[in-house]
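Re: that chain you flagged

S.,

Sorry for the slow reply, it's been a week of failed gels. I finally had a moment to sit down with the sequence you sent. For the record, here it is as I used it:
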Amino acid sequence: MKPQNFLIIIGTITLYFLFELFNPYLKSMTVALLLAVATNSLNLYITAKIPSKFFSSLIMTIILTLVFFIPLIYCVFSFATLINNIDQQALAKMLTKLESWVTLLPNDFTLVKEQLMEAIDKINIKAYIENLLSFGAYLGKNSAKFILDMVMILIFYFFFNFYSIPLSNYLKSLLPLKKEDASALFFESSTVMSVVLYSILATAILEGFLFGIFISFFGYDGILLGVLYGFASLIPVVGGLIMWLPMALYEGFTVSSTNAIIIAIYSIVIISIIADTFIKPVIIKFINLRVVKTKANINELLIFFSIIAGLSTFGFWGMIIGPAMVTFFISIIQLLKKFSNEYSIKKVDDEI
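Prediction finished late last night. Pasting the structure tokens below so you have them in one place:
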């Protein structure tokens, strides 16, 4: 047996046992690595200001915790508490008012009235409450595992930032590419992923902040609903609708129709039109030109489907893994396009 074949066999067996050894942490390591790659531009900026690699990595970890993980933890626990404190009588009152509203519809809409009344008759508030309570119990039971995953991600994220330079140099040396080509691949991947991550976070924070501040004036938990609106805003076109429409309907049926109209107008005009249509492109342009120092256009619909696919395949953390995989593939395509152009130019020069 050739020594090379022997080493390949031994390496494959060792790789299998390494996979089994680190399998419980692979998802956390993957998410942490992708976040480290996506925030590489910010890490370089902070490292330039703070030469100490330990403190710069610690600051990056703290920033990630404050911006991403603390709102998530607050959202999970608050949502579980909210479910356990649902007022069944208020929901019954809302259903009764909805039924009376449907009966007042003109006779010209008889077919619509029949369909709506049939749908209302099928609503079983008690069953819905039981399902929500079961979901709340599920959140409470799995919250410990969720927090543990977050802690592991933050630990791996810190070390990926701390050893970013030697680790990237080692990975580049393993690739069957020239040094400059490997660097270009890493740069393209980091750039595209940075634009996607920063754009997502900036949009979620902006729209979540606008909605949370506004809805708090109606006596609701502005922080919780702001965080939920921020996550909902990741869904193109109908993202904000799935948050403000239920709130407007609830206010309209239980408190005041005026409040419902105010919530709807504010959400459509201030958030959907002004913030999402006019302010969001400015933020993305700023990120492209000032933060990552390059231009990268990623279709929102592509991001949406990558988030949905990631969630269905990898669970909650697929929200990060899905877009990262898609953007990494896009960066490879861009690099291949670059190689193709260079090859074409070289071929023309050789012919001349």
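What I noticed first: The CA atoms of residues 24 and 149 lie 10 Å apart.

Talk soon,
D.
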